[in-house]
Design goal:
15 helices; alpha+beta; 409 residues; 10-stranded mixed β-sheet; 55% helix; single chain
Length: 409
């Protein structure tokens, strides 16, 4: 049996290169198909991971804690005490890497030139630096040195719209806890820049001390954002926090940002559909090549059977030829895909479509990310469906009648 398999494999390898041009063309098409599967999957994976990372870094975190009415009515009355001992104890667990309290309120910001509505966020500089984008996004000026800093940080786009700049003063107006007008002037000590201009016009930041003085509050928080050790850890941490703090509204990132979750699922579904479309195109080439091979070698197969070679060996020979083609295509396709991804470096620049990318909550640089699951999926699809596709031509070859095959001109 071993000798027969060795002989059949040797014949299959030689026959594969009998017509080098045709074999080269189909191999090129198959390599292109494998490349398209892997590179497209890495691009889609990069988009999904980037959208998730941006969502988590752009103030959302893995988990957020609010007062139960806050998400429906985000005003200062719907805040909670952030110094509650039960809450602090539950946040001190080892499954939480970092957390930061915030006080968010609707506000109006005015310069000498214009006025805009914003969301004003009071932060603790030290804890916020470990959790969100703000520290790394400072474009001009400086991040808050500590809680005693009396300045304000605004977005680059907002500064342009207000026709103001670093060092200038702006006036902030909001409502305090007694529903009275609270207003005060602040000097712009920092300007942040993000790929999403909507973020730059929506949020302005000051220290917790500053916003408490403005709103005449103490120890109140609108939200607490939390980063866990990993995304896989989120469900367990969420359940633990809810059990420890039943009076608070505690939600994970996918509940708070359902659009990002939808994008992630959409990319995954598209990947499966794209793999099937590419392979269907490849399968026509495989079937056509093998059928042409069988047509050209009809007399040869008939002679083999007349000499006593059983039909199953004919089937095996044609099938092994297909296996050789698949193996070569997979090796070359994976190699070319890796080289393509490596050549992109940090990703591709899609800033020409900046507005569309912002609507999809994506940055202007899209990275290519290859993960083991995507690589295995593409290879398994090609192997399994390739073997199934090649069964029909192999079966056709094994069903040839020796007498008719030998006399065929």
């Amino acid at each position: 049996m071993t000798n027969s398999l060795s002989l059949i494999s040797s014949l299959a390898w030689r026959n594969l290169w009998r017509n080098k041009r045709r074999t080269g063309v189909i191999l090129f098409a198959m390599v292109l198909g494998v490349w398209a599967m892997i590179v497209t999957a890495s691009f889609m994976r990069g988009m999904a991971i980037q959208a998730l990372d941006d969502t988590i870094n752009n103030l959302t975190g893995h988990i957020q804690i609010h007062q139960k009415k806050y998400l429906d009515d985000p005003v200062i009355e719907n805040s909670f005490l952030s110094n509650d001992e039960t809450l602090l104890t539950s946040l001190a667990h080892t499954d939480i890497v970092s957390w930061s309290k915030r006080l968010r309120v609707p506000a109006v910001i005015s310069s000498e030139r214009d006025t805009f509505g914003i969301t004003l966020i009071g932060i603790d500089p030290k804890s916020e630096a470990r959790l969100s984008f703000l520290l790394s996004a400072i474009y001009q000026g400086n991040y808050f040195s500590d809680n005693s800093d009396k300045g304000i940080i605004i977005g680059k786009k907002l500064a342009e719209d207000l026709e103001t700049k670093l060092g200038r003063r702006v006036v902030i107006m909001s409502q305090d806890k007694k529903n009275e007008l609270a207003d005060r002037g602040y000097r712009i000590t920092g300007i942040y820049d993000t790929p999403q201009e909507g973020m730059e016009t929506a949020f302005a930041f000051m220290t917790y001390n500053s916003i408490e003085k403005l709103l005449k509050t103490s120890q109140l928080s609108s939200e607490i954002a939390i980063i866990t050790r990993s995304l896989d850890q989120v469900p367990a941490t969420l359940s633990r926090l809810k059990a420890a703090n039943p009076d608070l509204d505690i939600q994970s990132w996918d509940t708070l940002q359902p659009f990002t979750k939808l994008i992630e699922e959409m990319y995954t579904d598209f990947q499966y559909v794209w793999h099937l479309i590419v392979f269907m195109a490849m399968s026509f080439g495989i079937i056509n090549t093998l059928l042409m091979t069988i047509f050209e070698r009809t007399r040869e197969f008939g002679l083999f059977q007349a000499l006593g070679l059983k039909p199953r060996f004919i089937l095996a020979q044609v099938w092994i030829e297909a296996i050789f083609m698949l193996a070569i295509a997979l090796v070359l396709g994976n190699l070319v895909s890796w080289l393509t991804v490596l050549s992109t470096g940090d990703g591709i620049d899609v800033s020409a479509f900046a507005q569309g990318m912002e609507m999809a909550q994506l940055s202007n640089i899209i990275p290519f990310i290859i993960v083991r699951e995507d690589l295995l999926l593409a290879n398994i699809i090609v192997i399994l469906l390739g073997l199934l596709t090649s069964l029909y031509p192999a079966w056709r070859a094994s069903r040839l009648v020796p007498a008719n095959a030998i006399t065929r001109v």
